Structure formats: structure tokens, C-alpha cells
């Protein structure tokens, strides 16, 4: 790797290649990749793939900071504003996502008094601002979903289910469909959600995703199908989720045993 770097530097020097900030015409084609990287940084912070904690706060903070920089540099791009809104609305729930022992707390069970009202207020205003530009995109839809979770004491699940349906136009993936299944399960009953979820459960992209089995277990539990719910919790555990999720699953299994 060191030799590659040396050769690259030599080539740049010999060819007289100059470095500079790309002009405005070159920024738009690169924007999607930049937004994706910032979002992935936040995702790793929001649900850490390793380590003892569910959340890596420093990564969440870094992603929010970078999103703010982008919003200052490109104030006329609604997807940039949508991404910042999404990160703020999601990160506003950070303190409520784990209990005192560090175990995962599902969204429906979170103490909303621990949510950050300033971040929610700013995020909601940004969503409205982005949508008024009438150039919709996936980050704006994600942000609208997050705003629905944060806007009222009772979550508007029918609206969230409809927004996930809209999101599928931009991101036709089994993960989005699985999330839509959860929303449908909350809006129209667990049987309706389970039907959708079971339609994607064999997709190879979901093979190592513990959240699929957690979602199935919760829907099965609400249907009173205790043995199947326990099997789904155990399936999630076999995928070796992070410690905070593992503690949640083990608690669920103890409660149902």
C-alpha cells in the first residue's frame, strides 16, 4: 500500500495534476454518494455493529455535523435538507433507546419525555422546508417517516405505512418492505404485517439481519402464537446481534418461557 501511494504521488507530480474544489457543475453527480456516506456513518453510530453499546454517540454527532455542513454549502438541495432532518429526528430519540442496563428499548416502549424536543422541532421544520421545494427523494421520505414517529403522543401508523409504500418507489429493497410490514402490522393488525413480512423473509439480503426475526417475533407475540414467537427470538439470537439487542432478546425469552 505504501508503494502504491508513492507511485500515485509520483504520477500526480510528473503529470502536473492540480487539486481543487470541483466547480458547481461537478457537484450534483457526486452528491448521492456523499449523502450515502454520511447516512452510513450515522447508521453505524445509531445501531453499532460491534462493541458493548447499542449507540456510538461520536459517530452520530459526526454525521449530524457533516450533514449541517452540506446543508450550509447546498441550501437549495432538498435531499441534503431531508438527510439533516432525518438524522436530527432519529438522533432525538437516542437517550430513550436503551434502558438503565443498556438493553434495547423498542420505539413503541420508549419514554417520550427523554426525546430531545429541540432536535425534533428543528427536524420537523427542515422536513417541511424540503418538501415545499417539490423535488421529493428518499431522504425526504425517510425524514417524513421519522417526523410521524415524533409528532404526536400516538404514532400515526397508517401514514407511516403509506410513506413506506412511497419509499419503495425510490428504494425497492426487502429491508424497506420489511419495515413497511411492521408499520402495516401496527396500522392494520399483526396478521396483515406478518403476511408482508413472511413474503420477504427468505430474501438472501435478509439472511443475516436479526431485526427481521425480532419483527416477526413481535407480530407473532401480538397474535398469541407464543411458540412461534419464541422460535423467532431464538433465530435472532443465533445471528449474534450486538450486546444491547442480545440483552433485549434474552429478556423476551425469559418473559415468555
Characterization of the model:
The chain has 257 residues and is mainly α. It has twelve helices and no strands. It is globular.
Q: Report the radius of gyration as a whole number of Å.
A: 21 Å
What's the count of strands? 0
Oligomeric state of the chains present here? single chain
Ranges where pLDDT stays below 50 over 5 or more residues in a row are: none
Structural class: mainly alpha
Helical residue percent? 55-70%
- SSE order, as H and E? HHHHHHHHHHHH
Largest sheet entry: none
Question: What is the mean predicted local confidence, pLDDT?
Answer: 94
Shape: globular
Helix run count: 12
Strand content: under 5%
Q: Distance N terminus to C terminus?
A: 53 Å
Summarize the structure.
The protein has helices at 2-15, 24-46, 57-73, 78-91, 117-132, 138-151, 157-170, 174-188, 190-200, 210-222, 226-238, 243-256. The protein is mostly helical and 257 residues long. The radius of gyration is 21 Å and the shape is globular.
Question: Which SSEs are present, and which pair or pack?
Answer:
Blueprint: H1 2-15, H2 24-46, H3 57-73, H4 78-91, H5 117-132, H6 138-151, H7 157-170, H8 174-188, H9 190-200, H10 210-222, H11 226-238, H12 243-256
Descriptive key words:
257 residues, mainly alpha
Amino acid at each position: 500500500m505504501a508503494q502504491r501511494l508513492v507511485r500515485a504521488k509520483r504520477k500526480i507530480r510528473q503529470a502536473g495534476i492540480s487539486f481543487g474544489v470541483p466547480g458547481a457543475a461537478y457537484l450534483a453527480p457526486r452528491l448521492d454518494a456523499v449523502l450515502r456516506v454520511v447516512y452510513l456513518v450515522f447508521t453505524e453510530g445509531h445501531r453499532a455493529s460491534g462493541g458493548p453499546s447499542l449507540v456510538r454517540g461520536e459517530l452520530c454527532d459526526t454525521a449530524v455535523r457533516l450533514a449541517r455542513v452540506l446543508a450550509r454549502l447546498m441550501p437549495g438541495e432538498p435531499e441534503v435538507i431531508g438527510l439533516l432532518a432525518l438524522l436530527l429526528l432519529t438522533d432525538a430519540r437516542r437517550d430513550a433507546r436503551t434502558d438503565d442496563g443498556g438493553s434495547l428499548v423498542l420505539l413503541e416502549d420508549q419514554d417520550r419525555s427523554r426525546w430531545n424536543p429541540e432536535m425534533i422541532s428543528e427536524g420537523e421544520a427542515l422536513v417541511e422546508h424540503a418538501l415545499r421545494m417539490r423535488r421529493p427523494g428518499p431522504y425526504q421520505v425517510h425524514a417524513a417517516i421519522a417526523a410521524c414517529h415524533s409528532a404526536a403522543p400516538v404514532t400515526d401508523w397508517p401514514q407511516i405505512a403509506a410513506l413506506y409504500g412511497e419509499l419503495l418507489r425510490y428504494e425497492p429493497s426487502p429491508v424497506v418492505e420489511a419495515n413497511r410490514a411492521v408499520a402495516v402490522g401496527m396500522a392494520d393488525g399483526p396478521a396483515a404485517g406478518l403476511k408482508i413480512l413472511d413474503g420477504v423473509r427468505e430474501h438472501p439480503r435478509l439472511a443475516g439481519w436479526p431485526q427481521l426475526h425480532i419483527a416477526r417475533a413481535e407480530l407473532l407475540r401480538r397474535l398469541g402464537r407464543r411458540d412461534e414467537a419464541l422460535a423467532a427470538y431464538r433465530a435472532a439470537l443465533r445471528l449474534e446481534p450486538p450486546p444491547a439487542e442480545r440483552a433485549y432478546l434474552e429478556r423476551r425469552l425469559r418473559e415468555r418461557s
